[in-house]
Amino acid sequence: MKTIIIIYLFFSLPLYSFDWRDLASKVVGESWVSRFFPESKVKSELKFPKLPAHTTANRPLENIKAQKMGSEQKEKYDIIFLKELYKVTRLGSLSNEDFSKWFNVLSQEGSREGVYHALVLDSTYYNLEQKKYPTSQELVNFIPPHLEKFTGNKIKPSQLKQLNFFLVKRVVIDKYLSVIDRFTNYEDLSSWYAFFSVDISKSFSNVFRSAIRKNIDLSTHKNWSLSVSKDLLKSEVYIKLHMVMNYLNYSDQKQ
Description:
Elements: H1 2-12, H2 20-28, H3 30-36, H4 41-45, H5 71-90, H6 96-107, H7 112-120, H8 123-130, H9 137-151, H10 157-161, H11 165-182, H12 186-203, H13 211-214, H14 218-226, H15 230-249
Helix pairs in contact: 1-2, 2-3, 5-6, 5-7, 5-15, 9-11, 11-15, 12-14, 12-15
């Protein structure tokens, strides 16, 4: 009977977004689950990688094992990406004109990061940085320890409190993207991403709607990052950070 239960759980639950193994252990016992599916070595051996030195030059590192999306799948995710990117960076919706422009860029193999930088470095975003959008104390408390842990950069809370919210987002998130570019080994980068994602998920699960982003299993995020390009990995980093920072600055905002 226990064997039947294990098989049912394995095939009926979404493995990527649900810790089915933990549930099965609670239902039939760890010893029974281990007989069929031994604990993943990735989960038990994964360690937080050493952060690359600030003097390390940016490397054209790419994931040679990344799975290439089909044209229809890529189009679907590009649309989702653009709508989400506008919402989290500018706290507004995407116009039809802007959608057509940036969707065309992505369709012609333009990078997500290129689109992101274009949005946070244009005149519209600059104008947001010039207005009175204060940075909340909650965000000021979050940034220094998280930034140091995942990038090695240090910043004083007093410095952040005086700055415009949109400026803070752009400058701080750029530090995360910079450390990603300094990794010389994709295996280390994927481990960094796994710890980053789990840390964010545990602290701000209420910010995310996606079950994947809510996931707190290291091996899940590690395996995902090993299957995608660095450009896609980066997009998850800056979108998650924008979502968390928006939430901390405007606690009543629904993501």
